[in-house]
Every structure is written in structure tokens, then in C-alpha cells.
Specification:
single chain, mainly alpha, two-stranded antiparallel sheet, about 10% strand
Length: about 100
């Protein structure tokens, strides 16, 4: 028979494995950020099964930065954290709005 684990236990295990932080550290970060995305200020994520903010980290160093909503995290990943790419997008929006 398979063992059953609590959602908190699984979340803590995943945070440790992926980012090297505990759920306590995550909760401290969340509190310091006022329970909002560090980028856009959204109070929750959308588009996934959870509304929890996600852990943003540097893909080069692995260092944890802040907690972001899914939208901000996805955009950062799509533009590969490139300031130039983001500036091109901003210029495009300005041109067409």
C-alpha cells in the first residue's frame, strides 16, 4: 500500500529539491513581499491548478530571487531574461497602442 503524504509535506519536499528552500522560507518571502508578486503586484497566480506564487530563480546560478505570479514568471522565461527583448516588446506595445 502506498504511503499518503500531506500537501504541505509534498510542497516542502518539492521546494527543497528544486530550489533548496523550505516552505517556511517560502512563507517568509511571501510575507516580505506583502503576499504579492514581486514584479506586478498580483495577489495570486492564474492559469494553473494552484493560485500560489512561484519561486523565481536564476537559471545560470540557481539562486532564488523572489516569488512571482505565473504570468510574470512565464514572460521572464520566454524572453530568456533579456532586457533587450523586453525593451523590443515595450517599443512594440508603444507603437501599436
Amino acid at each position: 500500500m502506498a504511503k499518503s503524504y500531506s500537501k504541505e509535506y509534498i510542497r516542502n519536499r518539492n521546494l527543497k529539491a528544486r530550489y533548496g528552500i523550505t516552505i517556511a522560507t517560502y512563507n517568509e518571502m511571501l510575507e516580505k513581499q506583502g503576499n504579492k508578486c514581486a514584479c506586478c503586484g498580483a495577489s495570486k497566480s492564474t492559469g494553473f491548478t494552484t493560485e500560489a506564487l512561484v519561486v523565481d530563480h536564476c537559471h545560470k546560478t540557481g539562486l532564488v530571487r523572489d516569488l512571482l505570479c505565473n504570468d510574470c514568471n512565464i514572460v521572464l522565461g520566454i524572453v530568456k531574461e533579456s532586457k533587450d527583448h523586453l525593451n523590443f516588446l515595450i517599443d512594440y506595445i508603444i507603437k501599436h497602442c
